[in-house]
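Support request from a user on the community tier.

User writes: "When I paste my structure tokens into the form, the page sometimes reloads and wipes my input. The last time it worked, I copied everything first. Here is what I submitted, just in case something in the input itself triggers the reload:"
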């Protein structure tokens, strides 16, 4: 039996077939015009899914490219305006690494701080980047409220919401949001397709040059098949109550086993992610043992490297012991309650086995 609880890294792809020819949408013949029409319809459907809050849809290869285009493109477009960038220390690397580059090259001022410390850091132009759902803990950040407060303080503030862990998994508040980034493989679409949705009037400079596709922000022939597959995945019904039940079942391990903790900063939590620490057990051997038993989980975001000196959990204020023993379980609409009960038994068995082998004293 295989139980896949690593959906925050990538989700199983739903089947998708397209009957017919998908030509290059830049070609002037009838097949090319039809492909361009399908791309336009896909943009309209995504914008409609977002309640038309963000109408300019740019297709990319995924969340990392989208965040890079948004951050670097904004920095290049506004480098003479005294721009300031704001982000939290535990953000995804696709936000932190571009900001590191921006700072190193002197393109703008960059402040990596908890959002409560952003206020008062003022400049003629500023951009705040924040994840809708924290990829490590599943915390749902009140991005719209934070955006409102920032814009009250400084109306020139632009807010980027990384929606990679949120889009396709319930409603997203987009009030006061200017840029949203997303990736298809996080909601059962194909890897290598994603995008960013922009409020009209946001100016970005391209990172690559070539054709005029995607409003010149992302030159190159569009992946029409991948885009249509992504839109089909976005239509997949999400039974959030089922996913919440799965998370609740696993979270009960913290009650049934001593020295087991759920790691979160906020009361508002995504039902799709559960981060737990099993004191006395290092996360890596536990993840490997669970894998041998057929339960697939992770130690956090797949894009992070072991070179990071501090884990996101430590940066959030959790102890090194909590961080070193933390395992992330993440779910999807395709998981079942039966899998949750089976995984729970296996997790308890594996944690108990490792603790006994190490002589861990409770």
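"...and here is what came back when it finally went through:"
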């Amino acid at each position: 039996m295989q139980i896949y609880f690593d959906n925050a890294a990538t989700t199983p792809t739903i089947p998708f077939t397209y009957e017919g020819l998908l030509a290059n949408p830049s070609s002037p013949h009838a097949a090319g015009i039809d492909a361009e029409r399908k791309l336009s319809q896909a943009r309209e459907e995504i914008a409609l899914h977002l309640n038309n809050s963000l109408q300019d849809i740019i297709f990319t290869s995924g969340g990392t490219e989208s965040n890079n285009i948004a951050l670097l493109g904004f920095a290049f477009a506004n480098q003479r305006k005294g721009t300031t960038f704001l982000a939290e220390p535990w953000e995804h690397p696709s936000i932190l690494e571009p900001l590191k580059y921006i700072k190193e090259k002197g393109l703008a001022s960059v402040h990596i701080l908890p959002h409560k410390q952003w206020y008062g850091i003022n400049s003629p132009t500023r951009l705040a980047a924040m994840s809708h759902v924290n990829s490590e803990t599943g915390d749902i950040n009140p991005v719209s409220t934070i955006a409102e407060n920032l814009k009250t303080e400084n109306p020139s503030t632009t807010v980027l919401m990384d929606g990679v862990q949120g889009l396709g998994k319930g409603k997203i508040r987009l009030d006061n949001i200017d840029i949203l980034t997303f990736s298809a493989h996080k909601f059962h679409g194909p890897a290598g397709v994603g995008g960013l949705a922009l409020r009209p009037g946001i100016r970005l400079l391209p990172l690559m040059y070539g054709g005029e596709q995607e409003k010149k922000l992302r030159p190159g022939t569009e992946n029409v098949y991948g885009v249509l597959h992504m839109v089909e995945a976005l239509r997949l019904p999400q039974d959030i109550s089922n996913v919440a039940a799965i998370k609740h079942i696993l979270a009960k391990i913290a009650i049934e086993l001593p020295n087991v903790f759920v790691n979160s900063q906020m009361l508002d939590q995504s039902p799709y992610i559960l981060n737990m620490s099993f004191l006395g057990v290092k996360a890596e051997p536990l993840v490997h043992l669970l894998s041998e038993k057929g339960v697939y989980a992770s130690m956090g975001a797949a894009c992070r490297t072991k070179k990071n000196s501090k884990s996101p959990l430590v940066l959030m204020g959790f102890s090194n012991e909590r961080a070193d023993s933390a395992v992330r379980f993440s779910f999807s609409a395709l998981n079942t309650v039966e899998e949750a009960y089976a995984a729970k038994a296996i997790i308890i068995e594996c944690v108990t086995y490792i603790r006994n082998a190490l002589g861990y004293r409770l």
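Agent notes: The reload is a front-end session timeout and is unrelated to the input. The chain has a mean pLDDT of 94. The chain has two domains: 3-9+238-358, 30-234. Escalated to web team.
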